[in-house]
Structures are given as C-alpha cells and as structure tokens.
Design brief:
618 residues, 6 strands, four-stranded mixed beta sheet, 25 helices, mainly alpha, globular
C-alpha cells in the first residue's frame, strides 16, 4: 500500500536578484492562489483530522482481503481518498512554507503531516504481504470479473511482479521502522554542507573579498572576466569541502552501505538492480546510457577546445566553462514571455497551447523572489486542483527557459490528472523530464528563428549547448560515478575519501580527455553534489529523459506532415498516461527505445550540430 503526498518534480536554478522585496509588496497577479486548495487553515485542520479518522478506518480491512474483490475494492478506494487528502494537506503546508521559510509555525505543520504519514506507513505494513497471500490466478479472476477494479489493476499486478522482493508482515513492519532513519545521511550532509558550512573567502583582483557559497560560486564563474579570479573562486569554494572531506566520505559510505543493505534485505543482486526494479527498468538501459555516452564525448571536447580558442586562453579549466562567449544583457520581462512560450509549443497542437495559456493566467504561478522565499524553481501537482509553479524570475534568458521547463512539467501533471484516475495519475521521474526538456527545445527553435541579433543567437546557442553538457553529459558521468562507488560497497572494498576521489578523477579523464587541464582539487567534486547523498541513482534519469525528448523533438521537425502529427499525438498520449504502465513501455509506445544506442547517440549528434552552428555564427 503506497500512501504518499503529491508527485512533485523539482528543477533548481540560481535566480537571486539581489533586490529582494517583501511579499506584501508584490502584486497579487504574480502570486499563486492557494485558496484553490483550502480557504484557510481551519479547513486544513479539518482534513488533517479526517485523515487520522480514515487511517483508523483502514485497519478494518486487515485479515479480510481474501474475502473477495468487493473488500479489496473498498480498501483501494479508501486508500485513494486518503491519498487525495494527503496531497492537499501536504501541498497547502509545503507551498505556504516555501513562500516564507522563516515561518517556523508552518514548518511545524509540515512536520506534523510527515509524522502522520510515517505512522500510517508502519500501521499498514501488513497490506502488501496480506494481498500477496491471495494466489495470482485468483486475483486475475477477480480483476476480470470486477470492472470497478480496473483503475487498480496495474498497481496490483506490479505488486505481484515484485512479490519476491516483498517480505512477510513481520519483515515489512521491521523495515518500515527504518523509513525515517534512511534519510539520516542526507540530513547530516545538508547540515554539514549548508547550515554548518563556513565557506572560504576569495580575494579578487579588484580587492573584493567574497565568501564563495554555492550561489556565489555559480555567479562568480558566470561573471568574472579574469581567469585568475575564476581560479581563486574555484579554489576557495572547493577548499570549503576539502576541510571536511573525511566526514563527507563517511557520510557517503553510509549512503552506499544503506543502499546495499536495503538491496540485500529485499533479495536484489545489486544496488542498481534494486533502484531500477520499482519502474521495471532493465539494467541494460543504465549500462547502455553510460557505454554509449563514453564513446561519444568528442562533441563536448570539441566545444571546450572551441571555447579555449575564442577566450584566448593558454589553458582551459572546468571553471572557465560558465563564462558567456559574448556580452549580452537583454532583459525578458515576465509579462512579455508567455505569448512566445505558448507560440513555441504549436507543434503539440492548439489544445496544449490553450492549457498553457490557462496556466499563465490562473493563479498557478508564484513569479518573483521575496524575502524568505525558497530559491530555485519547481512544479508541484495537487490532484483534483491543478499544478503550482514556484519561480524566482529575474528577467534573464536563463529564467525564460526555466519557465518553459516548469510549464512542461505542469502540462504533464495536468494531462495525467485529466486522463488518469488517482491510482495511476502519478508519473515516474523516468519520464518526468521529457515534457520539460521538449518545451525548452521548442522554445529554442522559435527564438533562433525569430532573432535578428547575432549576439542573441550566440547566447541562445550557448544556452542550448550548456544545457546538453549539463543535463546530459555531466549527469551521465555522475551516474557512472554512482555505479562505481556503490560497487565498492557491494564488493566489500573500503570507501574512503581517497578512494572516492580516485574514482571521480578517473571519470574526468575519461570524459574530457585532453580538452582541459584537470586541477587536482576537482578530485573532490563528489563531496559537493547533493544528489549523491540525497537521491542515489536518480540523476541518470535526466539524461534518459533528455535523449527521449531529443528523439521526439527531431520527429516534430520532420519534413513529413504525417510523422509530425503522429509524433504530437504520441507525446500527448505519453503525458496523459501518468503511471498507468511501466515508463519504458510508455516511451516505446511514443516511439523511443532507450535500450538502443542510436537513441542515446541522438544527443551527441545534436550537440555536434549546435557546436557547428555556434562556430559559424562566431
């Protein structure tokens, strides 16, 4: 039994403006309307109480699931009711908190909900093992004879598919006690790398002294014109992590050992197999992604060598990769971009455009930064209401593409909610980035076609290239690292700071070759990547989604009108399918097979074309 809050997809980006307003100063047109969920906290409290009552009611089905399909149907319907209430209760608190994270009273409400969910998870640990005591033939007969069970057929069959990895009631209850403990390595990492981190200071050639935090580091690499200043920023930032390197290594050892213990407890042969099993992803997909990408790193290396030449550098370093190739300070006010983004998705049809226009104007988006507001950007779905998008918009080109990206997530959530019942509305991360990156590609097409400014075209091309290198190649290298690091735990090899640094440095050499000078400090990059500590085996999905959207994008641009129409239909079917099937099958239905090397090669091929175009424009 899965009982959890709404499907939400995060896409973080640095977008601080340095001119932060109080929330009351921002026009209500640019703030989301949370009263679409609840009029106020009184109604929230009522639903929280109702969840507790329904949780108690759910226990009446314990020991009765073998009574027949009507009892199973009642249990799943009650689970849906609980899930929809959980979506609303969690989302209202979470979204409210993100507009002002200084408010500890709201944080307390969030924790109240999370504690309730954890308690329910433990109290219902009996459900899956009890359901599996019913023979699958009997269950299939009940499904065939009970049309009302159809919305739950896929989740039920998924449970049977996983039965060898489901423990008995005692085992499942025992593992449920560790649900909060599993998050401990991530929580320790967050505390060490943020709250307790004292970032080193870099003294620049201007005489300015800057504490090089995450946000400052990103900003400095994008703005410092002198390579020596970029080097100082790099060394100061990485020195902050080096001073606690052994602690970071011990935390990461805890992550790997936890994952290997969990995999063995559920009878998996490896941590990778355990992580991929939930979505029924063949291990070969992960291996094909890494193998094919390793063989096709030439376009990345060519881009780095081109940048070195254009920047007039004797040596090219990773910290030189973020500086724009041309000066460009055009602003894109938020009120001017909606029509452009809506027009760019015309290949997906007028109905898609209509939904997108509604999203821009319906109180779904929280646009501007305010004091206390969460940084970055995300789209969060609330089933039965609509998606909500958090932005920190600052009029830059990068933020224009962030808006297109988050709107892609929101359209995916909206279509899934329209087409699917609650039981199968929540799509997997494995397909989540397809709509968002496809939106970005379509926007780039429109802006390149429209632009008459040579500098803008160069900036657009660099935006697209950097998106590929960051979203695809870097994420594949990260996935490669995670696989190698976890194998150390599986093979009983000690995991130390030196071991992890050697693994990471070897990957830098494999992926980038002689295209840059590899500073020794880059060995410890693994210590500053939050995904490694918080969500192992997650980042590869950015790359597989990017490859999938690249294939679909190419087909949307086909000279054949029939293929364009068919591809648009395939995309909309994919977005409306929610979690009603395995994601690999959903993508196959859309014409994408990630087990084939040519699908992965579509991304390096696209990068090569963009580098050609950039070189021509420059």
């Amino acid at each position: 039994m899965r009982f959890e809050p709404a499907n939400r997809t995060f896409f973080d980006t640095d977008s601080a403006t340095g001119d932060t307003k109080e929330r009351a100063e921002i026009d209500k047109r640019y703030k989301w309307k949370l009263d679409h969920i609840y009029p106020g906290w009184e109604e929230w409290d009522a639903d929280l109480k109702k969840i507790e009552e329904l949780m108690e009611k759910f226990q009446q089905y314990r020991g009765a699931l073998d009574s027949g399909p009507s009892v199973i149907l009642e249990a799943f319907k009650l689970s849906d009711e609980l899930g929809m209430l959980a979506d609303k209760v969690f989302s209202y608190a979470h979204l409210t908190y993100d507009t002002d994270q200084r408010d500890n009273s709201i944080n307390a409400r969030m924790q109240q909900v999370q504690i309730l969910f954890a308690r329910f998870s433990t109290a219902t640990a009996w459900f899956d093992p009890e359901l599996l005591t019913i023979k699958q033939d009997q269950m299939e007969w009940w499904l065939a004879q009970t049309p009302e069970l159809e919305p739950y057929a896929f989740p039920i069959r998924e449970l049977y598919r996983s039965r060898e990895h489901v423990l008995d009631e005692t085992g499942e209850r025992l593992l449920s006690y560790y649900s909060q403990l599993k998050a401990t390595p991530s929580q320790i990492y967050q505390a060490l790398s943020t709250a307790d981190m004292k970032f080193e200071t870099a003294e620049l050639s201007t005489g300015d002294k800057v504490a090089v935090s995450y946000a400052q580091y990103t900003k400095l690499l994008r703005t410092l014109k002198k390579q020596e200043d970029r080097r100082k920023a790099f060394e100061a930032h990485f020195a902050s992590f080096k001073k606690s390197l052994n602690t970071f290594a011990n935390i990461y050892n805890g992550v790997c050992q936890r994952d290997w213990a969990s995999a063995q407890a559920r009878n998996f042969g490896s941590t990778l197999e355990a992580k991929l099993h939930g979505n029924n992803i063949p291990v070969g997909v992960y291996e094909n992604l890494i193998k094919t990408t390793r063989k096709n790193t030439a376009p990345v290396q060519r881009y780095m060598k081109l940048r070195k030449k254009l920047m007039g550098l004797d040596e090219y370093h990773l910290y030189d990769g973020s500086l724009p190739l041309v000066e460009f300070d055009k602003e894109y006010p938020y009120d001017t971009i909606s029509d452009m983004i809506i027009e760019s998705v015309a290949p997906l049809g007028t109905a898609y455009q209509k939904r997108l226009r509604k999203a821009f104007g319906g109180g779904w988006v929280d646009v501007y930064e305010n004091t206390g507001k969460r940084s970055g950007a995300y789209s969060a779905g609330v089933y039965g209401v609509h998606p909500y998008m958090l932005l920190n918009y600052n009029d830059t080109l990068d933020n224009v593409f962030t808006v297109a990206h988050e709107m892609g997530h929101s359209m995916h959530t909206l279509l899934s909610g329209e087409k699917q019942p609650y039981a199968t509305h929540s799509y997997t991360i494995f397909v989540a980035e397809v709509a968002s990156t496809l939106n970005e590609a379509l926007l780039l097409d429109l802006m390149l076609a429209r632009s008459t400014d040579s500098k803008e075209k160069i900036v657009l091309l660099q935006q697209a290239i950097d998106n590929i290198t960051g979203t695809f190649f870097t994420q594949v290298m990260f996935a490669d690292y995670e696989l190698r690091a976890h194998k150390l735990a599986e093979e009983g090899i000690p995991i130390t700071a030196d071991t992890l640094s050697e693994v990471y440095f070897g990957l830098l050499q494999e992926y980038y070759g002689d295209a840059l000078e590899l500073d020794d400090l880059y060995r410890i990059t693994w210590a500053r990547i939050p995904h490694f500590f918080g969500s192992p085996y997650y980042v590869y999905q950015y790359a597989t989604c990017f490859a999938s959207s690249q294939v679909l994008h190419q087909r949307l641009l086909s000279q054949d009108a029939g293929e364009r129409k068919k591809t648009a239909e395939d995309v909309l079917t994919l977005l409306g399918s929610g979690g009603s099937d395995h994601p690999m099958e959903q993508l196959r239905q859309a014409g994408v097979n990630l087990e084939k090397p040519e699908v992965i090669r579509a991304v390096p091929d696209a990068l090569s074309t963009l580098v050609d175009e950039l070189e021509k424009n420059l």
